């Protein structure tokens, strides 16, 4: 079977690639290469700030070591007034900023 099909972007696996089952050629749909490339070249969009009350808010995503997150969870569990992880982290950021600004 000829695995090279016009209009494909990625190479199809060969039939000898283990238990990979290729669909019959008549079931493989042709793609609009120009349209696919326009989507790829468009790229991602940056996060837009959102307004909550009178403040602009931005989204961030970061990784945190599991052991540190467990420490945060324990601190939250021991609080008398409930607070979310996000609330706790925002308090920690503000506290660190105030500390840095006093220097």
Write a brief caption for the model.
This protein is mainly alpha-helical. The chain contains 3 helices and 2 strands; from the N terminus they run αββαα.
Defining traits:
single chain; 103 residues; mainly alpha; 2 domains; two-stranded antiparallel ribbon; 3 helices; 39% helix; 6% strand; elongated
Task: Describe, in plain words, how this protein is organized in 3D.
The protein is mainly alpha-helical and 103 residues long. It folds into 2 domains: 1-44, no CATH class; 50-102. It has helices at 33-42, 66-77, 85-102, and strands at residues 50-52, 55-57. The protein has a two-stranded antiparallel sheet. The termini are far apart.
Which parts are unreliable, with pLDDT below 50 for 5 consecutive residues or more?
Answer: none
Radius of gyration: 26 Å
For the termini, the CA-CA separation is 71 Å
Main sheet summary: 2 strands, antiparallel
Relative strand content: 5-15%
SSE arrangement:
Elements: H1 33-42, E1 50-52, E2 55-57, H2 66-77, H3 85-102
Antiparallel strand pairs: 1-2
């Amino acid at each position: 079977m000829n695995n090279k099909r016009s209009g494909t972007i990625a190479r199809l696996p060969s039939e000898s690639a283990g238990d990979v089952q290729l669909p019959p050629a008549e079931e493989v749909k042709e793609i609009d290469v120009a349209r696919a490339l326009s989507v790829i070249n468009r790229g991602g969009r940056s996060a837009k700030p959102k307004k909550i009350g009178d403040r602009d808010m931005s989204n961030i995503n970061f990784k945190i070591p599991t052991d540190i997150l467990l420490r945060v969870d324990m601190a939250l569990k021991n609080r008398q007034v409930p607070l979310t992880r996000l609330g706790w982290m925002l308090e920690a950021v503000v506290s660190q900023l105030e500390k840095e600004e006093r220097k």
